[in-house]
Amino acid sequence: MTKIIDGKAISATIKAEVAAEVQQMIEAGKQAPGLAVVLVGENKASQVYVSMKKKACEKAGIYSREIQLPETVTMNELLTEVKKLNDDSQIHGILVQLPLPSHIDEQEVLNHIDPRKDVDGFHPINVGNLSLKIDGFVPCTPLGVMEMLKRSNIEIQGKNALVLGRSNIVGKPMAMLLTNAHATVTIAHSKTRDLAEQIGRADILVAAIGRPEFVKGEWIKEGAVVVDVGINSIDDPNSAKGYRLVGDVEYESAAAKAAHITPVPGGVGPMTIAMLLSNTLKAKKKYYNS
């Protein structure tokens, strides 16, 4: 029988653990962890994400600050804001909400975040630390996937894992985390030949390509673990909203073959914010424990 990996429940447990530790920190007379989120422009999806992060921080007792900048902000102005946050003793984690406007060099901005406050794990130093298995910050979504697997008692060592997608945010760090956990890892993408055959050999599949229901259930290996990172909106005249959210995997047909599977929504999505809170607490403890 297929077991649903409940990201909502796991993330709620992690948030509660973070909140308890933050409360202990405050009761011991220490400063609460602080997270700053920089939002550029009027992207509606980004505004929703930032609002969710702010509410999660408040519930966990983490100080949060939102810096809103106009779409027309210059590179120098944005870097000045980042530098201010780097130097701010009340802030222990910095997140620059992506995507940024086309005239802004995203990587250059990320490069200017203090690696000790890089709770998104995108700074080259933290990327290198992950590669070398040095303790640092790991991007929140793939870190959340690993936490889901761990808390679901899913064995990784020795398994064949396939990561579908090669982004810097999910695909590449996901592959590295699975490799560090002693899986045999394949990265597949739009240029991969015989993709269905490759997926059919995977004991663990992590799909993160942003293409609705691209992975067919018939491709899935019997008894595999399917982790669907994708979240896509498709038209649905039968829905009150006129649309519904689906992942990168055909859920029903995949669930018929998988031993474990994450739903969309309610799977990986909630884990991202939970791990952001965890990383912010980690930054405070590791580098600013006073």
Q: Quick summary of this structure?
A:
The chain has 290 residues and is of the alpha/beta class.
Task: Give keywords.
about 290 residues; alpha/beta; Rossmann fold; six-stranded parallel beta sheet; three-stranded parallel beta sheet; about 40% helix
Write structural notes for this entry:
- By secondary structure, the protein is α/β, with parallel strands linked by helices.
- The protein folds into 2 domains: 30-114, Rossmann fold (3-Layer(aba) Sandwich), CATH 3.40.50.10860; 140-268, 3-Layer(aba) Sandwich (Rossmann fold).
- It has helices spanning 7-27, 44-60, 75-86, 106-111, 124-132, 140-151, 171-180, 195-200, 251-255, 269-287, and strands at 3-4, 34-40, 63-69, 93-96, 160-164, 184-188, 204-207, 225-228, 232-235, 243-246, 260-261.
- A 6-stranded parallel beta sheet has the order 1-11-8-7-5-6. Strands 3-2-4 form a 3-stranded parallel beta sheet, with helices on both faces.
- The protein is globular.
